Amino acid sequence: MFSVIAVGGAVGAGARYEAGQLWPTGSSAFPWTTLGVNAVGCLIIGFFLVAVTEVWSAHYLLRPFFGTGVLGGFTTFSTYCADIERLVSQERAGIALAYLAVTVMAAMAAVTIGAAAARRAMTGRMQ
Predict the structure, then answer these.
(1) What are the contacts of 3-7 at 24+ separation with CB within 8 A?
(2) Which of 25, 72, 93, 103 is the most exposed place for a label (fewest CB within 10 A)?
(3) In whole angstroms, how far apart are CA 102 and each of 28, 51, 79, 84, 91?
(4) 30-79 pLDDT, tens digit each
């Protein structure tokens, strides 16, 4: 099981790295890329979990591979925390606090939207 999660994590971390290369964030800039990656990852996990728990019976390794591994490696809440620390150390505590709150709200909204979208898209296919 751990190797499945590790392989998924490597895939997700690679995708996260590529996002950072495509949309780099300067050391004094607002961390838009991290915010976007985390929101997109939460949207996908909301959709994915509905699909594999309410619609299809998936292979028992799919959830650990994709949910924990790929999406765990793709989303980057450790970078989110490091970004907050960086903003505070740059004496931008107000922006850090806003980023802290906006990320949590965006993540919660994204997972909710993803789950609702999956339910709507898969109506009639549910078990």
Answers:
(1) 4/61, 4/64, 4/65, 4/69, 5/64, 5/65, 5/68, 5/69, 5/72, 6/69, 7/65, 7/69
(2) 93
(3) 18, 27, 15, 12, 19
(4) 999 999 999 999 999 999 999 998 888 888 999 999 999 999 999 988 89
How distant, in Å, are the alpha carbons of 42, 64, 66, 71 from that of 120? Answer: 17, 25, 22, 22
What's the rounded Cα separation, in Å, for the pair 89 and 63? 38
- DSSP per residue over 48-97, as a string? HHHIIIII----TTHIIIIIIIIHHHHS-HHHHHHHHHHHHHTT-HHHHH
Taken in order 99, 111, 109, 16, is the CA torsion positive or negative? positive
Q: Give the Å distances, CA to CA, from 38 to 2, 70, 89, 124.
A: 23, 13, 22, 30
